[in-house]
Amino acid sequence: MSFRVVRTSKFRHVYGQALKREQCYDNIRVSKSSWDATFCAVNPKFLAIIVESAGGGAFIVLPHNKVGRLAADHPLVGGHKGPVLDIAWCPHNDNVIASGSEDCVVKVWHIPDGGLVKTLTEPIVDLVFHQRRVGLVLWHPTALNVLLTAGSDNQVAIWNVGTGEALVKIDCHPDIVYSACFNWDGSQLLTTCKDKKIRIINPRSGEVESEAVCHEGSKATRAIFLRHGLVFTTGFSKMSERQYSLRTPDALNEPIVMVELDTSNGVMFPLYDPDTNLVYLCGKGDSVIRYFEITAEPPFVHYINTFQTPDPQRGIGMMPKRGCDVTSCEISRFYRLNNSGLCQVITMTVPRKSELFQEDLYPDTFGDSAALSAEEWIEGKDAEPILISLKDGYKPPESKATITVTKRNMLDKGQGKTGKTQNQTQISDKTLQEFADEIRKLKAMIVKHENRIRALEAEVALSKANADEDGSGGDGLNAGHPLGDDEV
């Protein structure tokens, strides 16, 4: 007699649940760009979505409490001259976001607490290096103000945003870079390229440490570093079947696991939770989110379940663990963009009866403090990320001072347009709110005056009509003498 032993895992019963429509975000003109990106970035303070915009590129930034239907004239972040292709929040400052665009420029923005009250067109800094469109922006996980960008010119640049200069320029790719990912401490860089190869690169020197063919299909591939050093990839076979694989960095050309999923043609984005070792696969155009647990036991990648929705997804964003609700055992939260303009919020929950803090579900996670400065990192120093406990919940801090440091560095480097931008962005949130209140009062006063003018005009017209009737009445004797006595 044979017995089938069920694998023990605390994540076997994870289930997804979509919030009600009134708790989601509606009337969003999601970008129609054909670029393979998620179009969405989330942190504990804000939700950012790339949108359609006339006369350039833009994205919208919403505080999490601004749910419901958005106004058509909602303020945007709109300084790009071409469509925005990718956006990424800084992991060490929840008010700072980077954007890459078809205009070949990368811009870094500061979003005030409470969100935007008017369209933002002046960035903190412009990063100009790429000769063709920039389709990938990625922040370093442990070093402050270090940003990676990749363009269709096959170049990868690593910047110190504090000074606005490129620290490293990597040109080892013969074709377009599809994806990039740093490892746990940021000492290695993993990229996938249109030449079907996956590369592990030293991000300081640009030297390729190892490379191998990733997936044999010609469509876009994605690869991520897992917490303990393994590499997880998604791509296509020669027959255009979607695949995922698990590899070790020492033997990239020999996958530990290679599994074919289906024959859909949408690119799959792997979203990884390092605390639980869960990987969520979200395909562009799919109506499902599959999730897997990665363990040290064969077959290593264990399928858990699929979250099904009726509508296909155009983009997706994943909330960092800091923004999850620990009181309801929520381990992940996704923001799913539909073609209809709805941003649907989906929570992934582990069913538990106890309402106490579950320490096994919430180990210490990524905090919002950098372990290194950009200068220390480029000099060769590595450090593990600074972790925080979620036992008492996470409260997003007010705007950090790091953005001020960035501004000062930029002013030291050079004046002119950039210096002017820094001074402009130092306006406090309180001052902006006062301006908004004053504008609202002026608009109300104008409306009041317009109504009064309209009423006076109606009275004048009415009295004139009455006077005309009185003048044209009677026996007609005065019809030929319209002038008064003063003329005599």
UniProtKB/TrEMBL annotation:
<feature type="region of interest" description="Disordered">
    <location>
        <begin position="464"/>
        <end position="488"/>
    </location>
</feature>
<feature type="repeat" description="WD">
    <location>
        <begin position="77"/>
        <end position="119"/>
    </location>
</feature>
<dbReference type="GO" id="GO:0051015">
    <property type="term" value="F:actin filament binding"/>
</dbReference>
<dbReference type="InterPro" id="IPR015943">
    <property type="entry name" value="WD40/YVTN_repeat-like_dom_sf"/>
</dbReference>
<dbReference type="InterPro" id="IPR036322">
    <property type="entry name" value="WD40_repeat_dom_sf"/>
</dbReference>
<dbReference type="Pfam" id="PF16300">
    <property type="entry name" value="WD40_4"/>
</dbReference>
<protein>
    <recommendedName>
        <fullName>Coronin</fullName>
    </recommendedName>
</protein>
<dbReference type="InterPro" id="IPR001680">
    <property type="entry name" value="WD40_rpt"/>
</dbReference>
<dbReference type="InterPro" id="IPR015048">
    <property type="entry name" value="DUF1899"/>
</dbReference>
<keyword id="KW-0853">WD repeat</keyword>
<dbReference type="InterPro" id="IPR015505">
    <property type="entry name" value="Coronin"/>
</dbReference>
<dbReference type="Pfam" id="PF08953">
    <property type="entry name" value="DUF1899"/>
</dbReference>
<comment type="similarity">
    <text>Belongs to the WD repeat coronin family.</text>
</comment>
<feature type="domain" description="DUF1899">
    <location>
        <begin position="4"/>
        <end position="68"/>
    </location>
</feature>
<keyword id="KW-0677">Repeat</keyword>
<feature type="repeat" description="WD">
    <location>
        <begin position="127"/>
        <end position="169"/>
    </location>
</feature>
<dbReference type="InterPro" id="IPR019775">
    <property type="entry name" value="WD40_repeat_CS"/>
</dbReference>
<dbReference type="GO" id="GO:0007015">
    <property type="term" value="P:actin filament organization"/>
</dbReference>
<dbReference type="Pfam" id="PF00400">
    <property type="entry name" value="WD40"/>
</dbReference>
<keyword id="KW-0175">Coiled coil</keyword>
